[in-house]
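Task: sequence design from structure.
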């Protein structure tokens, strides 16, 4: 799981920015979703290639995960944080390239979860993806359409995400921590947090379009927004897949 920086939100403008048109924001949103779903597709391909070739063996040792796995896991986390911090310093093409690189790393580190699901019940992968897609679409639409200010959710969602990351890290040391009822509760909370993050991010992206007048900044924001939405979608998928395979 990657860390999302919620500090990219913008204040709601008192009046529409000059040049804001429905056609303009539609193109902006299409760019965001094209990048986001492109990253999801890259993740799927990376995971498939890893599982279908001997590459998956480098992720494991006789007693658990290998050093390579942890390097890729924490390297991806560091890349996601760095890309968000430097989002407005990169060219749009560079930001998109980093997003795809992060998507590749995510696909590789998801391999153990996918292999376990394949061994238990392959259909849960399709089920988790379908449920995630429906939840994502509903929450994204809610975030875009609602007139309620969702900014109050920011600090709670960020704290919840930090808690999930800490539990995830603890599970590497004490795997039994994710067993039983506690693990099920963590999965439910993870799905809830990233579903709400989807609505929260969509509202902020809509506001950002109205505030940012420069086309270059809007393109950079589109890449950053795609990264945020991608993280939410993938996190929901992972927690749902874990939930469907709790036994």
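Answer:
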């Amino acid at each position: 799981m990657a860390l999302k920086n919620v500090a990219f939100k913008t204040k709601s403008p008192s009046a529409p920015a000059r040049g804001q048109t429905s056609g303009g924001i539609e193109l902006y949103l299409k760019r965001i979703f094209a990048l986001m779903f492109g990253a999801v597709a890259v993740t799927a391909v990376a995971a498939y290639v890893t599982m279908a070739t001997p590459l998956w063996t480098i992720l494991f040792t006789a007693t658990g995960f290998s050093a390579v796995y942890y390097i890729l896991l924490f390297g991806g986390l560091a890349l996601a944080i760095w890309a968000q911090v430097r989002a407005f310093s990169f060219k749009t093409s560079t930001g998109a390239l980093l997003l795809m690189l992060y998507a590749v790393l995510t696909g590789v580190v998801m391999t153990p979860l996918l292999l376990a699901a394949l061994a238990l019940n392959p259909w849960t992968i399709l089920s988790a993806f379908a449920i995630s897609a429906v939840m994502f679409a509903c929450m994204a639409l809610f975030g875009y359409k609602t007139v309620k200010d969702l900014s109050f959710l920011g600090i709670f969602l960020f704290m919840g995400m930090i808690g999930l990351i800490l539990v995830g890290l603890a599970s590497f040391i004490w795997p039994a921590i994710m067993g039983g009822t506690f693990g099920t509760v963590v999965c439910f909370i993870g799905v809830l947090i990233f579903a709400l993050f989807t609505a929260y991010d969509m509202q902020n992206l809509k506001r950002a379009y109205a505030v940012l007048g420069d086309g270059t900044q809007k393109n950079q924001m589109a890449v950053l927004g795609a990264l945020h939405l991608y993280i939410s979608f993938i996190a929901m998928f992972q927690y749902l897949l874990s939930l469907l395979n709790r036994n």
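Residues 20-244 form one domain.
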